[in-house]
Amino acid sequence: MKPKPLFLVVEDNADHRFLLEWSYQKSNQSCNILFAEDGLKAMEILENSPVKPALMLLDYELPYLTGLEVMSRLKGSPQWKHLPIVMMSANDDPKLVNQAYIAGANSFLGKPQNYDDFKKIWSLVFEFWSLTAKLP
Amino acid sequence: MNNKPLFLVVDDDQDDRDLLGMAYNEGTYNCDLVFAESGQQALDILDKSAVQPSLLLLDINMPGMNGLELLQKLKVSERYRVMPIVILTTSSNSKTIDAAYHMGANSYLIKPDNFNKLSKVWDSLYHFWTSTAKLPISSTSFIAS
Fold first, then answer.
1. Of A16, A29, B42, B127, which has fewest CB within 10 angstroms of its CB?
2. Does the predicted TM-score (pTM) go above 0.80?
3. Does A12 touch chain B (CB under 8 A)?
């Protein structure tokens, strides 16, 4: 049986990590998820983890390295350029959305504002990326 | 003003274009579809059309300019690099998948071998890109300058 793809979620907000974990538990769990609290920890995981993530869900606003900085490093690296990155932010200002796509984001999500939307959106994200799309 | 997102489907195979059109016509999808039969025709549409696509759905194996060549061309173009490009192909070769992501494909989908499965892929694609993801502003409803 094919192993489930690993999604690395880079999110500094503990409440948002909790909601994402909760949404994941309510979903059909077609992927595995791993959390990193900031961009530096995400880079460490990428370097050291024996199981490489198939997709990164990356918060826009992060301490130490911003989401755009993490993305620039990865998209500029021959080793990680192919890794799909879905950027997410509570701020869906069209200029910010465009900036993310220009920097190489594979997709962009506006962070949901309530539990029900969280569950619905994450279920669609997990379904599209782990069941419909082919990942590297 | 028509604010519906426009999807440009680039596929040389008439049957595949027809099947996708049928999947689109089967449900209520708040988007428009335009078809191009080759990479060159897609470039002509992009250059001449007043309304720019929100998303490009791109086959790989095509005569003349293949899908990966068109992908590469668009992703280095100042004007079009922001436009999401989703590969839709029968090729499930892992090297091709990696190469497409490496060149900047936003996502990669396998073209199923029957209509019911294709309808499901189309439905998932439509719902993710139109109601879950935020599309870039320059490609949602603008009139090209």
1. A29
2. yes
3. no
Residue numbers of the domain that contains A45: 6-132
Check whether B139 has a pLDDT greater than 50: no
Q: Using an 8 Å CB-CB cutoff, list chain A residues near B75.
A: none
A18 touches chain B (CB under 8 A): no
Number of domains in chain A: 1
| Residue from the list B102, B124, B133 with its beta carbon closest to the beta carbon of A127 | B124
CATH number of the domain that residue A105 is part of: 3.40.50.2300
What are the strands of the beta sheet with B6-10, ordered from one edge? Answer: B32-36, B6-10, B55-58, B85-89, B107-110
Q: What total number of domains does chain B contain?
A: 1
Q: What distance in Å separates the CA atoms of residue A5 and residue A129, rounded to the nearest whole number?
A: 9
- Give the pLDDT confidence of B59-104 residue by residue, as tens digits: 999 999 999 999 999 999 999 999 999 999 999 999 999 999 999 9
User: Which residues of A are less than 8 Å from B84 in CB distance?
Assistant: 101, 106-107
